[in-house]
UniProtKB/TrEMBL annotation:
Its EC number is 3.6.5.4. Residues 293-306 form the SRP54-type proteins GTP-binding domain. It comes from Paenibacillus phyllosphaerae. This is Signal recognition particle receptor FtsY. Belongs to the GTP-binding SRP family. FtsY subfamily. PROSITE patterns: SRP54.
Length: 331
């Protein structure tokens, strides 16, 4: 019995460790640009004074944490520093991590809500090239490995090569794709896909759509039609509408989310290409300035490079270098 619990505990901690490692790897660029600069600031300035706060502000804004969020964060830090009577800059790091985790944590959870039995439908939306199709491929892989029956719907009938791209992912992952010819009505594709999913006893249907700008009203209307077809054919569906955002576009991603979120019944966000940016602080800005939870993050182009978002893991991975450094100092 004891060994069973020990094995269970070990396997859980191994899993947590591998998740943190994935984040660590994917956040390398952000960590180098952001954490190393904070570290440098702490060692150079030593004391917490006005000049220290000003420089910290600059670093945070540079990492795309967003001006409003940075102001809030610095104010909270000031309060905490006074309360705890901190003078030494080196002691600020744990307080900063704590505050960042606080900003990232929300009331709503980061899980993707699916039916425990029966068909769940997840719709992916977003502007061109943000990583919708890739995320669908990765997520299909994840669910398939968990033993779920997955089906994909090729709802991007607009861009040349889009259907083939989804089919390549389908083959790679080993799941079927429901499609029609290029140029056909995406709502009709969704209708077919839902019928096929029901007939085949599928657990999760992942629906791709064409990239669109939130200000193109005909395309937003098309999305609306897709949404209505799914809603009509499956009770409670779509279970999630995930807006995919490209982290490398920084503050632009934030404004996309604001505009899209208002118009298309978005339930959560996917932030892709975090591996490709030094501005991973955008996660914090998005979390703090929008009511929408970040549910998934993309950390590379491969099948396994997708993680469920976890605020503590994220901040931990971000500060991995610093935490190690401060532990060494303590030794
Ligand atoms: N480095 C990195 N690249 C990514 C990630 N996610 C997607 N990409 C790449 O981004 C590019 C665009 O991805 P797609 O999945 O085609 O994007 P999309 O939103 O479906 O694009 P459209 O269908 O044209 O609107 C591809 O080259 C992907 O490999 C990620 O997390 N990290
Ligand atoms: Mg696509």
């Amino acid at each position: 019995m004891v060994s069973f619990f020990k094995r269970l505990k070990d396997s859980i901690s191994q899993k947590t460790e591998s998740v943190t490692n994935k984040f660590k790897e994917g956040l390398t660029k952000t960590r180098t640009a952001f954490v190393e600069r904070v570290e440098e600031l702490i060692t150079r300035r030593k004391k917490i004074d006005e000049a220290f706060y000003e420089e910290l502000e600059e670093i945070l804004i540079g990492a795309d944490v967003g001006v409003n969020t940075v102001m809030q964060l610095i104010d909270e830090l000031r309060v905490e520093v006074k309360k705890r009577k901190i003078e030494d800059a080196a002691e600020l790091q744990p307080v900063l991590s704590e505050k960042l985790i606080g900003l990232l944590r929300g009331d709503e959870d980061n899980k993707i809500h699916l039916e425990s039995s029966g068909l769940s439908v997840v719709l992916f939306v977003g502007v061109n090239g943000v990583g919708k199709t890739t995320t669908i491929g990765k997520l299909a892989h994840k669910y398939k490995s968990e033993g779920k029956r997955v089906l994909l719907a090729a709802g991007d009938t607009f861009r040349a090569g889009a259907i083939e791209q989804l089919e390549v992912w389908g083959q790679r992952v080993g799941v079927d794709v429901i499609k029609q010819s290029s140029g056909s009505d995406p709502a009709a594709v969704m209708f077919d896909a839902v019928q096929a999913a029901k007939q085949r006893g599928v657990d999760i249907l992942l629906c791709d759509t064409a990239g669109r700008l939130q200000n193109k009203s005909n395309l937003m209307e098309e999305l609306n039609k897709i949404y209505r077809v799914i809603q009509r054919e499956v009770p409670g569906a779509p279970h999630e509408v995930l807006l995919v955002l490209d982290a490398t576009t920084g503050q632009n991603a934030l404004s996309q989310a604001k505009l899209f979120g208002e118009k298309s019944g978005v339930t959560g966000l996917v932030l892709t290409k975090l591996d490709g940016t030094a501005k991973g602080g955008i996660v914090i800005a998005i979390r703090n300035e929008l009511q929408l939870p970040v549910k998934l993050v993309g950390l590379g182009e491969k099948m396994d490079d997708l993680q469920e978002f976890d605020s503590e893991q994220f901040v931990h991975a971000l500060f991995a270098g610093l935490i190690q450094a401060s532990e060494q100092v303590e030794e």
